[in-house]
Batch of 2 targets.
Target 1
Amino acid sequence: MYAKSPSAIRRLRSAGFLLACGTCLLGTGHAAHAAKPAPPLSPAATLEDVVSSSTAAWDRVVVLPDGRLLVELPRWAGNTGPGLALLDGDNTPHPYPDNTWNDPATPAAKRLVAPSDVQLQPDGTLWVLDSGQPDPAGKPEAGGPKIVKIDSHTGQVMQTWPLDPGMLRTGSYAATMRIARGHAFIGDAGIPAMIVVKLDTNTQRRLMEHTPALTAHQPITVYGRVATNPAGHTAIINISQMDISADGQWLYFEPLCGPVYKLDTDLLVDPKVTPIELEEGPTLWYKTPPLGGITVGPDGTLYFNDVSTGSIFRLMPDRVYQKIVTDPRLHWPGGSFATKDGQLYVPAAQLDRTAPLNGGHNAIEWPVHIYRINIGSLPPPKF
């Protein structure tokens, strides 16, 4: 056993791991306290078809302050157009933030090579994680992996932070990111780890490598079928979904196969935290199925996009857990976005039908859609 200093104990207590109830277990693999499952919402939440595409597979969406949709088009899914596209009034896609940032002739450091995650903050700041890897199984382009900060009001790139090549391993893939407390928290889905970037100094640290909470331990199943890589083997995707509480205190994340963990960002921003503290830091928050997205709603409710059954669940702040809709149209519900006025936008991404997750064969059934759910009008659970 490792003895912890008084300061370490204080950090863990402030992180919510030593609770007054006395029934909680410290460490990875133990939930803070049990959620209360509620019967499925009846009637189920209504899906409104917002927009569709017969040429591009979208896996993430955000709603800009002016109401337009910004979509991410993963390179590895077979998309050939821009990595980010803004849908105008008639839903025509335009390269975002402009043509130059999506032009293959532009140097990789000034181009969106292969965006893998986006985050829109309340002030309109858009953060983009560029993996720099059109093929997650390949090598990133030199200068490609980076963080890009964009003013969504003007569409101007404000700053970029290149990822230090030393932060990535052979087989790494920078898949997901959230910004808070002056730091970027990046999940490596290839060689599981958390990369933490202090933005004002561009100080970068690679933490928690191979920590169980970041590591996939089971297959990804979609309607009972196991997702396979191009070689026909079971697809393994480590930490790849992430969201953060409004105050930046709690990071929610999961390997794609599930489950969801919760981690106090105090443990990530403090360079004095030891590897053992970080190993023990994640708390199992809910034993979810494979998820295509985790979204924190305006009231702190977590929305889980279940790719195994085409369902969306909500985990409310009082830890009531409920399925709000199951619909065959939600084939691989991807990275969704919750607006301040209570609208949840969900892309039905069909990623399990793309070549990297379908044994090397692309079988997307066009068109793909983005749906909207009025989560602000959903009734409370009934038991």
Target 2
Amino acid sequence: MKKQMMGVMAAMAMVSLGAACSGDDTNRRDSNDAGDVGGDGGDVGDGGMVEDPAEEPGDLGQPCNFVCNLSSCVVEAEECEGGVCVYHQELGGSYCSRLCVESCAPGYTCQQTEDESGPACLSGAAACGNGQVEFGEVCDGQEGCAADCLSLEEPVEEPEVSGGTITMSLYGNAPETVSGDAPAVTAEYTQGRLFFSSSLNVMTFGMDLPEPGAAMPLDQFLEIGLVENVGGANCSYNAATTATISEYDHAGQTIAGDAAFTLFCQSGICGSECSPNIDVELEFELRWVELEE
């Protein structure tokens, strides 16, 4: 008797499964009742959703795992933010979506599905370049989006670069100017001081920054060092002077000023090939970067 009962139940299960997988009317709901297909897409009550949500699901159009034998079906899907997965035969795949009342995200329309479990937001055919991300596209129109809309590269954050203009006259000669980003002009704030240099020579400058909001112009202590090779001998110079700061923007990290000073060759290091001193006139406009300590 038990074996006969089990055989009857198995036969009933086979009949039920066959009806669910067929394309006839037994696979369709008698009404547009979406009460069993809930999720976060909106309020679901007797007869369907009350209104469309203010925000669209973040995974709208992302592939999900569902197939049916009709042109379009919708099933509850916990893995989708909108609560449902739509099978869309025309587009050849299934994707996360949401139930709807009348409106959907750009590129999607609110349509009744053939299994009458909707209405749900169904994607239009992908059209790369229209600025709308449809099913099958990763992106469309945004920065870093590939020409075929199938991949997105996150923008690379370029490191901040220092730069500016430095003009110098040495030994009373005509002034020389260099402008541009580092290494043409380098200005770095580190360990509480601003250090700057240029590609004109290997002269380096170090100074404390003025107080933010300080009135201009003002005098600021400036230290200078220079090492140059003359006839195979290394000549080392240094100086300390006062620079006149004419412009200063602490928030914008810019500073400008000028100075005139004499570099003296360090005793015990300078040989006969080295000049005992070098007269220098300096003008600078800098954009500095702050280094992590």
